[in-house]
């Protein structure tokens, strides 16, 4: 990703609206299938119109925007990296996004290898032989950019869709 990736956008956290007001009976919860229906139907439409590579790039960029907004609005970016990552683990679990674990951390160099089990995007998908968590790559990169202002390369190296039982991401500053 380039340093300017995702910096020119109009979306803001407030665009999500007042969910308590708008959903007094149904509230915050919805089935994972509904989320995936939206994501994978958008991926299909984008792929048919622009090709798989562009669809992946668009999902990655939208993930970056979402990650940045989540970080800015729900996490404390003043904490040291280790404490910030602990808070991020809790937030991802609380929101039902996944169970994040840190496999490797070079805190000084800010390179990481993390896993996300029970990933909202792919856990339980049929094996296709291809990683599918482009949105997650952008989401993680956006969170880390919001945390310290640096651009990060996030690459999914294992995925449920490739036959693994967890998603694994290699993360390094650009």
TrEMBL record:
This is 4-vinyl reductase. Residues 111-173 form the 4-vinyl reductase 4VR domain. Pfam families: V4R. SUPFAM superfamilies: Ligand-binding domain in the NO signalling and Golgi transport. Signal peptide: none annotated. It comes from Thiorhodococcus minor. Coiled coil: none annotated. It comes from the Bacteria. SMART domains: V4R (SM00989). InterPro entries: NO_sig/Golgi_transp_ligand-bd, V4R.
């Amino acid at each position: 990703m380039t340093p300017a990736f995702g910096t020119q956008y109009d979306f803001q956290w407030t665009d999500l609206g007042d969910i308590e007001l708008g959903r007094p009976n149904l509230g915050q919860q919805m089935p994972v299938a509904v989320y995936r229906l939206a994501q994978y139907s958008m991926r299909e439409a984008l792929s048919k119109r622009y090709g798989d590579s562009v669809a992946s790039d668009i999902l990655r960029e939208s993930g970056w925007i979402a990650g940045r907004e989540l970080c800015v609005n729900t996490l404390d970016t003043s904490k040291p990296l280790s404490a910030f990552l602990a808070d991020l683990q809790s937030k991802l679990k609380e929101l039902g996004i996944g169970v994040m674990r840190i496999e490797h951390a070079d805190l000084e160099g800010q390179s990481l290898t993390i896993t996300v089990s029970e990933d909202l995007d792919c856990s339980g998908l049929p094996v296709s032989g291809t990683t599918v968590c482009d949105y997650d790559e952008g989401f993680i990169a956006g969170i880390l950019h919001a945390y310290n202002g640096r651009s990060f390369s996030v690459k999914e190296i294992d995925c449920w869709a490739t036959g693994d039982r967890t998603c694994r991401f290699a993360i390094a500053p650009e």
